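does this look right to u?? aspartic acid version
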Amino acid sequence: MNSVVVTKFGGSSLADASQFSKVKEIVFADSNRRYVVPSAPGKRNAKDTKITDLLYLCHAHVMTGISLDDVFKHVYERYTGIVNDLGLDFDIQKHLGIVKKDLEAGASKEYAASRGEYLNGLILAKYLGYEFVDAKNVIVFNNDGTLNSKETDELLRNTLRNVEKAVIPGFYGADKEGNIITFSRGGSDVTGALIAASIEADLYENWTDVSGFLMADPRIVENPKAISRITYKELRELSYMGASVLHEEAIFPVRRMGIPINIKNTNRPEDEGTYIVQDTDEKECKTITGIAGKKDFTVISIEKAMMNSELGFCRKVLSVLEMNNVSFENMPSGIDTVCVVISDSELKNKTDKIVEEIRRACDPDSVVVHPNMALIATVGKGMAKRKGVATRIFSALTNANVNIRMIDQGSSEMNILVGIENDDFERTIRAIYGAFN
Ligand code: ASP
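got this back:
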């Protein structure tokens, strides 16, 4: 069957010549893989440095009036090494020379960073025999640095309509004046998603160095199971709570078009990986899909007799947060109590000021601050309409001797959130994982 697949490879998948040859094998194994999006060469080992970081460093050197020669040498060696080891007849030195000159002449930070993908894209296009489409001609940014989705969509569609097979570097585009603009770090995922959406691809493959999403963080749970199918909504819940494989903004363009994403492992292409899909079959889905959590929250707990009958009480509390430019995470409430859960990175050192202002605005009986809290989300579409899920979580936590400070279940019945002490974080994740596996 003829379908169109957009295939993005992350930095570790293109870190050296041997990774390039795996990529070629993958691309050539399926003629539907017509549009390939590369990242810049990533780390070859734990101590290595990503090309993007070296390029940022080159720019910083120039800005501080230091020669970039020493740093650029590493960039030069990486790319010439890849081309030589692949035995490619390609004058990468010429392109490296242009980039170096531009950097020395004071090119922007975003231009500097984008060259990682640009140079890798040139090499990959040559190696695959695909056309090279420069992202600066198809990904359009507004003058304020935000993406111009409409123009990008049109340009991509019109350009790729006439191109059978192409390599389009990830991570950057340009504004109307031609200045290079980048997405935030990891942004090649976004480029791939935009391309897939614009041409209404059948599949967006995202090749990396793990075989998809795992049910829990492998640094906490030993050998967690892989997730074979997950809905966009579940993924959003888990990513928000700290699980990460894909750039957050990469979900929206493909989700809108109902295009599935398949996270695959370049080093183990035979593994099925994780499919991120619009919906999963209720009968097929497991009770829980994954567990993720974040540390360092503060809970401000406010108590006042007859709070339930006082109109506008919560609004007053939230106005104090708004006036202090602080957004909150969660707001569980009881008859005479309401709590606001706030990330410490939001709160900074404003706690005392906020407490004082809540006292003044709401005249409560008490305001108590609980610092050092963690939030853990157990996510799964399969928990809706299934009985006993919460019981399993809470019994597991009782057995693990974890004190639950807060509980919240989203109305979508897809997420049970528990608030615990930071110190109980790892123990809680292991206990919940154990209860369902
Ligand atoms: N090379 C860029 C980075 O390191 C973008 C990407 O890899 O997606 O963040």
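The chain has 14 helices and 16 strands. idk if thats expected tbh
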